[in-house]
TrEMBL record:
Pathway: Metabolic intermediate biosynthesis; chorismate biosynthesis; chorismate from D-erythrose 4-phosphate and phosphoenolpyruvate: step 5/7. ATP binds at G2, V3, G4, K5, T6, T7, R107, R142. GO terms for cellular component: cytosol. Monomer. Substrate binds at D24, R48, G70, R125. InterPro entries: P-loop_NTPase, Shikimate/glucono_kinase, Shikimate_kinase/TSH1, Shikimate_kinase_CS. Belongs to the shikimate kinase family. It comes from the Bacteria. It comes from Streptomyces alboniger. Binds 1 Mg(2+) ion per subunit. One of its GO terms (biological process) is aromatic amino acid family biosynthetic process. It is an enzyme of class 2 (transferase). Its cofactor is Mg(2+). This is Shikimate kinase.
Length: 160
């Protein structure tokens, strides 16, 4: 959450000359409301259901770069789906996370006490990211352009 999946995914798609898609954006477009509003109105399990369907549809329909929400890998069937894909796990440390998301109310899970929340989320998720990732790219101290380059290098992808 806040590591740069959406930002770097767009840059990467440009570099590869491919299309970009983001499952959070797909959900917002289909629901006609923001992610934070879906969490408040319907609760997290409802959002996770929408997310599981959005990831499945995107993996089936889309052949370019896909950014997921940071919690998508909590779903076991999503993780199974991702094992066939060249998934990159973008990482950062907690101070970088707070810098990038701390003042941003768009992420409901970090709205209160973001440093503690982020640590707890990562303790619960780190092994799941590692399970699905084909490559891990650290983003601390790197610009989004540098991260995109590191992803190209890690997956040995050629620019368009
Ligand atoms: N490498 C980076 N260095 C500094 N800020 C970044 C970097 N990548 C993304 N950001 C900023 O961090 C915030 C979260 O980025 P975003 O792409 O929405 O992350 P995610 O999709 O992983 O939640 C945005 O304000 C974005 O501009
Ligand atoms: O990590 C999470 O549980 C979430 C991450 C968000 O996406 P980003 O990772 O793109 O911020 C968004 O799906 C929602 O707020 C929940
Ligand atoms: Mg995002």
């Amino acid at each position: 959450m806040g590591v740069g999946k959406t930002t770097v995914g767009g840059l990467l798609a440009d570099r590869l000359g491919s299309a970009f898609r983001d499952t959070d954006a797909d959900i917002v477009a289909a629901q006609g409301r923001e992610i934070a509003d879906i969490f408040v109105d319907e609760g997290e399990p409802y959002f996770r259901d929408l997310e599981r369907q959005a990831v499945r549809a995107a993996v089936e329909e889309h052949s370019g770069v896909l950014a997921l929400g940071g919690g998508a890998i909590l779903d076991e069937s999503t993780r199974a789906l991702l094992t066939a894909q060249p998934v990159v796990y973008l990482s950062m440390d907690v101070e970088e996370a707070v810098k990038r998301t701390g003042l941003n109310q768009a992420r409901p899970l970090l709205a209160v006490n973001p440093r503690k929340q982020w640590r707890e989320l990562m303790d619960a998720r780190r092994h799941l990211y590692a399970e699905v990732a084909r490559a891990v790219v650290a983003t601390d101290g790197r610009t989004p352009e540098e991260v995109a380059q590191a992803v190209l290098d890690a997956l040995e992808l050629k620019e368009a």
